[in-house]
Amino acid sequence: MEMGHVLVIGSAGIDIKGHPQQAVDLAAPNTGVVRQTVGGVARNIAENLARLEINTVLLTAVGRDHAGRRVLRRCQDAGVDVSHVRVMPGQRTGTYLAVLRPDERLLVAISDFAVLAAVDSAYLAGHEPLFAEAALIVIDATLDEAALATVFELASRYSVRVCADPTTPRLAGRLCPYLDRLYMVCPNAAETTALCGLENPASDHETAVAAARHLVSLGVQIAVVTLGESGLAYADSSGGGYIRAIKTQVVDPTGAGDAFTGAAIFGLLNNLDVDEAMRLGATAASLTLQSQQAVLRNLSPELLYARLAV
Fold first, then answer.
1. What is the pTM of this model?
2. What is the pLDDT of residues 201-213, one digit of tens each?
3. Nearest alpha carbon to residue 63 among 115, 104, 102
């Protein structure tokens, strides 16, 4: 497969997750397990792509601290090009702190990614050659309005397609001005309200298909709405479909959506039809749900096809 690199832009940091052993008492200490992993939506997508043998370049910012070195080392070990990452003296590497319920659903989370202010218009414009040579650009919605405007300006200048992850319901609305310029967008159910202008978020098979089709009507080329254990819906100009969730034992839900995005992009870059690319994404998400890591260290094209969802 001869092509330019995939340029991934957005968050990178450390995930800290608390897994309680019983119902959480918010007014007292709770017994459980606390784990740290390398994370960040954009970084996770970049690592998934690199492990799927896609030439991947990451633009992000980390602090000049132990956590930042850990993030960069994990990316390098996976094959991600981090030579252009901005390392900021005197700043903290981004951290996502989550407390889960005993059933692994999120109870509360705090996101500390002030360092991403360094991923600004000047930094992005200073890496214009990376945009010019890219086969595809992937962003998350942690980028501020000025940075997003720069991304889409450079993407248009060099006719490079852009894929986006809305990241959170609060951040998803930042993508609304650019829906007609997106190649693919992958919101979860909660994020569809901000993106689609719907009164209620997608909640089942029918509403997810409707939300995906609505996003296509707004100009998105490929729209995917993920529903967790209820599967996912997708649409493009030729139609769409629905894929049931693969039954699996959930160890940790973190990173499953990022795995989906990375594997779906892998399929599209290899000129697979949308249906098969979606199946690859669903397979990667299912495998990631079974891991304590946000990205499978043994992810490979061979593993995806061996476990391909039908």
1. 0.94
2. 888 889 999 999 9
3. 115
